[in-house]
Every structure is written in C-alpha cells, then in structure tokens.
Amino acid sequence: MATIRDVAKQAGVSIATVSRVINNKGKIKQETETTVREAIKKLNYIPNKVAQGLSNQRSNAVAFILPSISNPFFPEMARAVEDVAQQHGYHVFICNTDDKREKVLNYLDNLATHYVDGIILNSHIIKEADLEKLRNNNISIVMMDRVLEHEETTAFAVKNRAGGRKATEHLLDVGCKRVAHISGVTDIPTAQDRMWGYLDVVGTLPWYDTSYISRSDFTVEGGYQAAKELFMRHPEVDGIFAGNDLMAIGALRAAHEWGKAIPNELAIVGFDGIDMSALTTPPMTTVQQPIYELGELAMKELLGHMNDEAYEAKTVNLDVELIIRETTMRTQQN
Ligand code: RIB
Q: Whose CA is nearest to atom 1 of ligand 1?
C-alpha cells in the first residue's frame, strides 16, 4: 500500500508538502497541489486518519458515550449527533456502557490517548476526576441528558422535574383518584427528578404514602414487574406515571394481563417520547423530550469547543411537552 513517502517521491516534493495538501493546511501553489493530488490518485494512496490525527493532533472523530444501546431513546439521540458530526466532516464512535462504571472508565482511558478530538458524555456514573485525563489530553467534552453538574463542562438536559409534574397533574386532571409512580434507577438524576415532580403533585395528598412508588430500572421488563407489584399492593390505583416509555410499555402489558380497561380503569403516562410510544395499543400518552434537538445542540457545542471558539461552559435545560394519546383519554369518570 502506498505511503506518504511514495507520494512525495512521485510528486517530487517533501513529505510536509504532501501533508499540507492532504490536510488543506498552509499556502500551496496550485501547480504543486495538482501534482501532489495526481500522485495520490496514481498511487491510490489512502491517508491513515489515525496517523494523520497524531501528526497534526486532529482525528476528525468524536465519541458518543451512552448508557444503553438497547433503549431506543439513545439511538434516536445518536442519530442527531451523527447527522451534525457528518455535516462537519467528523466520524462518530458510539460507545455503549450498559451503565457499568468499568466500561465507562475503559472507554475514557482508550479515548483519552488517541482517536478522538471530542466526547459527548451521557452517563451518571462519571466523576469530575474521571474527566481530568481527557482535559489533559486536550479533548473537548460536552455532557447531555444524565449530566454531571460542573462549572467546567457544558451540559444539555431537559426539565425532568417539571415533566414529572406535568405527567402526574394530567392523570389527576383526567379523573384518576390514586396515581402511582414507577421510577427509573433512583441514583440516576433524570429518574430522581421525575420522581420529585410526581411527589410535588401527590406527596401532600391525604391518601399518599411511599408504597405508591415502585422503583424499577428503565426497562420494559422492569416496568412490567413494577406494575404487577402495584396492582397487588394497591388494587385501587387508576393512574400510573412511569419514568420512561419502556417502563410504561411494560406497565401496559401488565394491565392487559390483569384485564384492566385502558384508560378508564387504568390510565398510563410515560416519559421520553420515543417513536415506539405512538405504536402501543392503545397509543401511549407521554412526556416528549426534544431528543433530536438535544443531540444536535450537544454536537454543535462540541464543534465550537473543538475549534477553539470562545468557550463558556453552561447548563441548558430544555422544555418537555405532554403528548396526549389514548392511554389517558378517559371517556367516563369512575
Ligand atoms: O429511557 C432512558 C432514560 O434515561 C431517558 O429518560 C433518558 O432521559 C435517560 O436519562
């Protein structure tokens, strides 16, 4: 396979000149550039992106570290990151961590020493000290969704607590008398904030106690099991706010198995607004996150940071929207 040295020899120029042509850097006579490009074509030379990155400290690649590739929320977010990255000539490495700290640290160690110019981080198990190594290697960082509150790192998230309130208020507004909550993993800030939003609405009502909260894990199976627990513990429950759409889908399955009429005997609201939430039977009411916009904003911010534009760390919390579908369109008040 031809090397940069072969190209330089073929074109009768120095290796540095070939490198400048490949990287579009520095002033080069048009005649020289043409000669070099002809040599590249003749020899079918393919620049080694990694070597190229190492030589001029740029790889034109970024990484998106995310909690779970099997939850549709994150691939929908990755779509936006990749669209913006590719529009600006960047490749994206998708790094699935399964929310395991050792996997996150392994990715950070590998990414810190090569291959990427920037990282978008979506992980609640990161600590500020973990990011120091990245900063020391001049790697730009933007956090998204599950964010670490830190003055040095820009973060994009949504108003989770307000979204939890919207979901719970909606269930009471449609006539539910006893509203329960299925929470995500409660050491995840997004899950915690949604649960606080639920408690803001029902926490002081006379009937409420903590047994109306069933803790789960953001999965369909987890939501299914949590809903069955609630049905046994509180058969009077006629409304459920689930902390994400996958758990709401699991709760819907449990409700069908228990013969509960949706929404008149049991109304359900999810959170995220993944495409699948519109495809359930009946279609799911949910709190829609601006998933694509989050990914778009995070990648655009990272581009600015990587290209040394004036960089001012900030935290941006976007609004969420209640999308009302049939799992809460009750036709009769019990
Ligand atoms: O569905 C997965 C959840 O984890 C989403 O709600 C997202 O906000 C992330 O925190």
A: 244
pLDDT in tens, 241-295: 999 999 999 999 999 999 999 999 999 999 999 999 999 999 999 999 999 999 9
Residues 135, 221, single domain; the answer is: no
DSSP states of 30-44 = HHHHHHHHHHHHHHT
Binding site membership of 64 for ligand 1 (Cβ less than 6 Å) = no
pLDDT band at 44 (very low <50, low <70, confident <90, very high): confident
**Do residue 142 and residue 179 come from a single domain?**
no
In-domain check, residue 333: no
Q: Which residues pair with 214 in a beta bridge?
A: 182
Report CA-CA distances (Å) from 99 to 93, 118, 298: 17, 20, 20
Alpha-carbon distance of 38 to 25, in angstroms, equals: 18
CATH number at residue 308: 3.40.50.2300
Assess whether pLDDT exceeds 90 at residue 129.
no
Q: Ligand 1 within 6 A of 244 CB?
A: yes
Pairing of strands 285-288, 267-272: parallel
- In the chain, beta strands by DSSP E: 61-66, 91-96, 118-121, 140-144, 154-158, 179-183, 213-215, 239-242, 267-272, 285-288, 315-318, 321-323
Phi, psi of 260 (to 5 degrees): -85, 130
CB atoms within 10 A of CB 261: 11
